[in-house]
Write a structure and sequence with these properties.
With 126 residues, the chain is α/β, with parallel strands linked by helices. The protein has a single domain (4-107), classed as Response regulator (Rossmann fold, 3-Layer(aba) Sandwich). The chain has five helices and five strands; from the N terminus they run E-H-E-H-E-H-E-H-E-H. The relative contact order is 0.17. The model has no long low-confidence stretch (mean pLDDT 82).
Length: 126
């Protein structure tokens, strides 16, 4: 399987998840800042964008809105985190309306969810 680039915003300190992505043939490109991630998205194509919801330096909703301005079709997946923005339920609803998938759980659950997202995206392209 050829490597597929995934843009990752945040530290992704869970090495198990990053290692699992590599094992599946993905090439995660990690950026610590929103600005750096958005600049990378402007210049390259990615199979998906992963957002580390545990990163305290990330305004998830602002980032997703910016991603949608750049590429409205790229799958965006928020991994874990408390989505600390006041009302988590309302934030999740906004993210869902923007076509974002929020995945919680173990790295295995996140990988399974990510594979579903990418398979659904590939089915739409066919």
């Amino acid at each position: 399987m050829e490597a597929t680039a995934l843009l990752v915003l945040g530290s992704m300190t869970d090495r198990t998840l990053v290692d699992a992505l590599f094992d599946l043939g993905f090439a995660p490109i990690v950026r610590d800042s929103m600005r750096s991630a958005l600049n990378k998205l402007r210049s390259e194509r990615f199979a998906a964008v992963l957002v580390d919801g545990d990163s305290t330096d990330v305004d998830v909703l602002e980032f997703v809105l910016n991603v949608r301005d750049i590429d409205e079709h790229v799958p965006v997946v928020v991994v874990g985190g408390s989505l600390d923005a006041g009302d988590e339920k309302a934030l999740r609803a906004h993210l869902t309306r923007l076509g974002t998938v929020v995945l919680d759980g173990s790295p295995d659950q996140v990988i399974a969810g990510l594979e579903q997202v990418l398979n659904a995206e590939q089915a739409q392209d066919d």
